Each structure stands twice: as structure tokens, then as C-alpha cells.
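Purpose: get a first structural picture of the assembly so the mutagenesis plan has something to point at.
Setup: two entries, given in the order below. No constraints added.
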Amino acid sequence: MPKYELETMRHSASHVMAEAVMRLFPDAKLGIGPAIEDGFYYDFDLPRSLTEDDLEKILELMKESIKAKVPFEREEISRQEAERLFADQPYKLELLRDLPEDVPISIYRHGSFVDLCRGPHVENTGDLRWDSIALQSIAGAYWRGDEKRPMLQRIYGTLWHSKQELRDYLARLEELAKRDHRWLGRDLDLFSLHEEAGAGLVYWHPKGGRVRTIIEDYWRKRHVEGGYDIVYSPHIGRSWLWETSGHLDFYHDSMYAPMDIDGQDYYLKPMNCPFHIMIYRSRTRSYRDLPLRWAELGTVYRYERSGVLHGLLRVRGFTQDDAHIICTPEQIEDEILGVLRFPGHVASHGLCRCGRLPVDAARKGGGRALPVGSGDAVTATRPGDRRADMRWMRGGAFYGPKIDLKIRDALGREWQMTTIQFDFNEPERFDMVYVGDDGQEHRPYMVHRALLGSIERFFGLLIEHYGGAFPVWMAPVQAVIIPITDRHVAFGREVESKLRAAGLRAELDASNDRMNAKIRAAQLNKVPYMLVIGDREVEDGAVSVRLRSGEDLGAMPVEAFLSGAKAIDDARDNQRLWKAEA
RNA sequence: GCCCACGUAGCUCAGACGGUAGAGCACGUUCUUGGUAAGGACGUGGUCACGGGUUCAAUUCCCGUCGUGGGCUCCA
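Result (C-alpha cells, whole complex):
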């Protein structure tokens, strides 16, 4: 058993690092320095920018401190003493002043370094191992996460129990980085982005297009089965639409500048909802029509600040798998539960964990004045309440409580995918009504929901999830036919058309590379099946099947491969069935 | 948007006190016709991101813009 929790050691390491920085920059102002998931950081206000060389020096100084086994000493002091002690540390003073009155002020010293800190820490710096610490990067970070406050320099470090653990961790990071969709997308010829054609705009290549088609076909099929109707709407709309929805007021920073058409302002759509509402308003609706479930693969354009764009995961034009459910207050619970149970398969990992919060919130709130939610549910008050609107917007919710689902990428960052959001605002703004069984007009409830989130982001994470090796049913190329010499190409074409006729995405590699090179190319493209054909196969009407796992299944008649591959396709499990058959 | 770094062939990268550049892979031609992860030869390919400035001369130095990477803030 290690003597200390990693968290304690990491926090101590951040103090040791801060001490080292203070020795290099005696005038440094200290921010905060907590332990984080895999390491620690410390924020500094320094007279100049740090460089990679500085990191080496800092690590050297940390090493000295660790070798000297300097004891950590805890001390509780009065507020006045603390203010005196940190008189030249404005950020510490600010933290101090924000501490509640009844909290005792504790400080930790080791050597000449002293920090306002709750602890705990290791006994002495010698409890850390200098060879299991790495300083990873220098980054900018706003003081207290507020972009209006000064930007400090943050040093990220990582610490483990042993040198080996550190090595393993760094190796793991490298391994994960290999799954990065940005490089896989290029190597597998799935998509591209072009600086000269505009940042954050995605070009889907034929192979990426195949995967997207499969995702969309699947999406459409499940939605129709799930009681949704598919709708289509324009990409631009007159300013009236956005004024009415409120987007022009509250979402303005994310919208592109208007274009003048015959003296009228038109805007690229950042959202699909107002269009679906227009469809709703196109005729009188009865309670007998509800619930309405309208889905659209709607492409939206949003201005994103330049620093936040990231491959497919954060772009400026993307397609949402958007849907709006318009229902009566009585139907809302069933509708939400229906979404939570939605047989989305590809998107539904973890959906069930979301609980019943919004349903309860909606019920308690009666749909007009809502209680404050917790977690990711966003506060909502009255429709039309400007302050509340703005808060929802800033919080990322349009108009009410929501459920969000986040998935981590290869680099460990979280990205929002699924979102389910109540909207008590737009029905009001657009004066949506239905005629109830009492003959009176009533206000319907509206739910926005996207399961995949955006097709682009979903695809990016899908690439990383599979490391580019898509399961057979999604693979852009399912089988590559590899003739050994030119005289086998003719038979190769026959096989190719047979497979294609059977619905398989097969391609013939007729290049004049050697077979080995063709196999290598297919491997690198992560093609599930490689079908080698030479003299023996031509004679027998067979193919030799190699899997991307490297397994060689030997020769089999083309029909046998076909039925096997189709069965595999149906089972959505490429390798196992083959092994069972083999 | 902010902090730091970066931008040389499609990709990965060399390179030069400032005197307009090179490799491997990819691509093309060609020889080779090969049994499960790279056969050989030859060749095409670059306004050294873009725009200014300094200079006899800028891809190299300075400034700006655009873009990329890692963070922060923000978000599907």
C-alpha cells in the first residue's frame, strides 16, 4: 500500500513546483494549485512568459527540494496574520477574503515557501519521487475562470507512485492520441477541413459519406419506427423569425451577419426550432393531433470563437439530428420517458442514467414557473423574463431544464452529445396553441431533443471510439479483393460485382503492387475483410479470407464468404462469427 | 475572444551568417507477376500560409492577418 493517496502527493507536488517558480521569479504572484484528475497544476502571474526551458529548470529545482526532504508544516493563524503574511499576494488575499468567517485559516510551509491551503500534504518533500513527476505543459488560464480577470500562466504536471507508473501513463496518453479522429480522418480519407475555404467547415469525403449515410439511414429508420415524422426546413430565414424566437436578442453573438435580400435581412439558421414551429402554425391544431414528433437532420451554422474550433468536435457548420415534440401537459412525462427509452442504439449509451429530474421539475413547475434544477438542469423562471432568458442562453439551455449527455474523446475531454430540453418559451413567443376538448385554446409543451447531437461531432467520436476500425456494418469499405497477379484481376472483378450485388461494399485493388503491399494498405485502412485470389482461387471459384485481426481463414467459395459476411453484418459483430464458423 | 507555441511538396520532417530549397512516404511511368503488413528503377510535385515593413536582396529578421496545436472561457 502506498503511504499517501495520489491526490495528496499531487497537491504537495504543486506546492513544491510553486516553491521552485518562486525561486526563479521572486516576484511571482500565486494563483491556485490543486490536484486534478491525473496530476496537478499551479497558476502564476509572472513578469514574462514561461518557456519549455523554464519547465526543465523548475523540475530541477523541484528535484533538489525533494532530495532535501523538507518537512511540510501546517499552522492555523488568524485572519489578520494571514492578511499580513500574504500582503504581497493579491490573489491569495482575494481568496482569503472570500473564505467564510467561521472557517479556520490554515497555511502550509515547507522551507521558505508558504501557501494558504487546507491541506492535507505529505510529511516531507522526500515522500515524493522526483522521477515519477513530469511537467507537461504551460497554458493560459483566467484567474478564477473569468475571462474579464487577468490571464495567469498555468503549469500542468503529473505525478505517480513510481517511475514505471509515470511511464505507463505517458505511454497510455500516446496510445490514446493515436485514436485522434483528426489524424485518422485524414489517413482513412474520411473528411477534411480547409483553411483557405473557411475554418470549422467540414468536407465529407466519399468514405466518410458512406459512414454518414449508414448513420443517417439508421437514424431515419429508428425515428419512423419510434413514431416520428421527418420534416425539412430552409437554411435561412427572415429576421422576423429570429426576432420572434428571441435568438436575435440572446443568441446574436453566435449568429452570422444578415444577408440583404430585396431589402430584408435574412439569417443563416443557428437552430431548427423556429422552422418547426412555423410548420405547427400552418394550420389549427387539435389536442387530437398531439403529440407531434418532428425530426430533421438540420444543418445549422453558428459562429464559434476561433480558439475553440477542434476537428469535427467543434465546428461552425454542423448537422443536428434535431427533433421537436409538441404535446399537451398531460403527455409530457410519457414523451420524455419515450425519449429516454428511445431505441437509439448508436447514441443511447448511458441515456438511462439521466433520471427523472426534468419530468419532476416540469410537473412541480406546472410548466409556467419552474423550480431551480440541480446538476445540468438549467434554471428557468417565467417565459418572457428577460434575465432568465439570458441566463438560460448563457447556460447553454434555450428555454428550460435540460438533460445533457457527454462523451469523452481520445484526449479525455468531454463533449456534449445528447441533449433533451424543455421549452416553455417559444410556444409563448410564437403563440402556439391547440384546441382542447373543452373547445378552448391551450398552450402546448415543447421538447427539443438531439440524440446524436451533431452528426459531425458524433462521427468524430465514433472514429475515436473504434480507433478507425469501424464494425463491418459501418465500415466504408467492407472487403478489399486482392488479386495476386494481373491474370487474377478478371476473376477479381467478377467477385467484386457479386459482392456488390449482394449489398457489400467491396473494392478491387488492381494496382500493380505486390500482394504484401496490398494487404498492408488494406490493413492500414482497417478494412475488415481482405479477399486474396490467385491461381487456386480462380480455379475453385473461391476467395482466401484474411481478417484485419491478422487471422487467416483460408479459402472458401465466394458464396460461403457472402453468406458468412451477410450473417456477420446482421449480427453486427464481425470477428466472432467468423471464428465460430472457422 | 484570451495566453503560449507553431505554419517548408498531399503527409511526416530536414535545411540555409538573409543570396528563391531537400529526404522518406504518397502520386505517375516502367520493369517485375509475386501466396498474407512496404520488390526495383526513373520521374512529376514547393510564390517555403497570406499581406505589409527593413534590406542591394526576405522562405529566413520585424509587424499584421489567416490557420493549426495545447490550455482558458464558451458550446452540439
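Residues 206-225 of chain A form the longest helix (20 residues).
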